[in-house]
Design brief:
alpha+beta; 2 domains; 8-stranded mixed β-sheet; 5-stranded antiparallel β-sheet; 26 strands; globular
Length: 409
């Protein structure tokens, strides 16, 4: 499939992708758009010209500060909108060819959170990451806790502190227990970290008491974003027993602005790892539920060039999204449109694929070398972390763009 829109080489936003997001121009209210190359197609403007003639789609759904009203139309309708846009952008005789005003350069807009996030859950679904953390902080011979291979471990996070890519991240303070001290102290985190994650966005409500099976799960997932779950490791280590993460996690999490649909990711399905022992029936599934998505993390000092310090892949995930959603709802927990569910840190088997500085520096014992000659064990003020993700095969590329944030003191 070809498009008449000029697409920069290696662009994430090809005619095969067409992710949805919320943007605004200076002095104007936010609205919905689709990314194509280095442009944004203004969906409200296209609908106002009556070129999105799809039953049940009123142009007002594109004139909101979130995608929630659009998502509420249902997956059949939102998929039809994406296919119509794909047709308009690939048809040589498209009416949009004479309407340059419906295209806006991405460089001239402000991007916003794509959805209104009611609830946020973070999982712990990479066996490599969980094993590494267990080896560092528990018994290396028994790194995984007894429940880990039986269920997708997760916790409920704080949705109010999820921010859009580019938002500065202030170094958090809290209680820390130095090894040599008898009592904790209050101080800024000295072990500030990133976590390389993706997240999926819920596209359909359920009622309290209703569960979603692995077979149904994809009908409830609108799309995916990149996710950086910033972590203060020293705060986390002192506080997490017995109830899990709290101040070490809830100060900020960053997401990428463009939501990539499962329709766009369909060609990149792949097998997941073999799960041993066999999981309980409600977590069993058929078909390919993992996705071959390349991921990388770059670290850029305040006065230096970026160094790519991690290359990983979403296909490594032990627990897939369908299993995560099935487990989340098996007890009757209801979900709502816009809810966000993060994957947990995505690490691979080799050290260059570890998805956090905690692992890359092995809890600070192995400094990471940067291009400018400096080293890092954890993040310093002024550092920018930039995560990218894309799937590519047979000349077809579908990407997420980037999620980035700079640490400020």
């Amino acid at each position: 499939m070809q498009t008449w829109i000029p697409i920069p080489e290696n662009s994430d936003f090809t005619i095969h992708n067409l992710p949805f997001g919320i943007f605004s121009m200076e002095g104007e209210t936010p609205g919905a758009g689709v990314a194509i190359g280095d442009q944004i197609l203004d969906l409200y403007a296209v609908a106002d010209l009556e070129h999105l003639d799809i039953p049940g789609v009123d142009k007002s759904v594109f004139n909101h500060s979130s995608l929630n009203p659009f998502i509420r139309l249902g997956k059949r309708t939102t998929s039809a909108v994406r296919l119509k846009v794909q047709q308009l952008l690939s048809d040589e005789h498209s009416p949009l060819r004479s309407r340059p005003e419906v295209f806006i350069p991405q460089s001239s807009v402000t991007m916003h959170l794509p959805v209104e996030i009611g609830d946020y859950t973070d999982f712990y679904s990479s066996i490599e990451h969980a094993t590494n953390v267990g080896m560092m902080f528990r018994d290396p011979a028994n790194a995984l806790l007894p429940n880990w291979r039986h269920l997708p471990v997760g916790y409920h996070g704080r949705s109010s502190s999820i921010v859009i890519s580019g938002t500065p991240v202030r170094r958090p303070s809290g209680q820390v227990k130095p090894k040599e001290a008898d009592q904790p102290v209050f101080q800024p985190s000295a072990r500030l970290d990133f976590e390389l994650e993706t997240a999926f966005i819920i596209g359909r409500n359920t009622e309290l008491g209703q569960s979603v099976s692995t077979a149904e799960a994809e009908d409830y997932i609108f799309g995916m974003v990149l996710f950086n779950d910033w972590s203060a490791r020293d705060l986390q280590q002192w506080e997490y027993v017995p109830l899990g993460p709290f101040l070490g996690k809830n100060f900020a999490s960053s997401i990428s602005p463009w939501v990539v649909t499962l329709d766009a990711l369909e060609p990149f399905r792949t097998e997941g790892p073999v799960q041993e022992p066999a999981v309980l029936p409600y977590l069993q599934y058929t078909g390919k539920k993992n996705y071959d998505i390349h991921l990388e993390v770059g670290l850029q000092p305040a006065a230096g060039d970026e160094t790519v310090i991690c290359r990983s892949n979403f296909k490594y995930m032990y627990w897939n999204m369908c299993q995560q959603l099935a487990h989340h709802t098996v007890n009757g927990c209801n979900i709502r449109i816009g809810d966000l569910m993060a994957s947990g840190t995505i690490s691979g088997k080799d050290p260059g694929s570890y998805g956090s500085m905690l692992e890359l520096s092995w809890s600070g014992t192995k400094p990471i070398q940067l291009k400018d000659g400096s080293t890092r064990t954890f993040l310093q003020d002024g550092d920018t972390v930039r995560m990218r993700g894309w799937a590519e095969q047979g000349g077809v590329r579908v990407g997420f763009g980037a999620v980035e944030g700079r640490i400020v003191g």
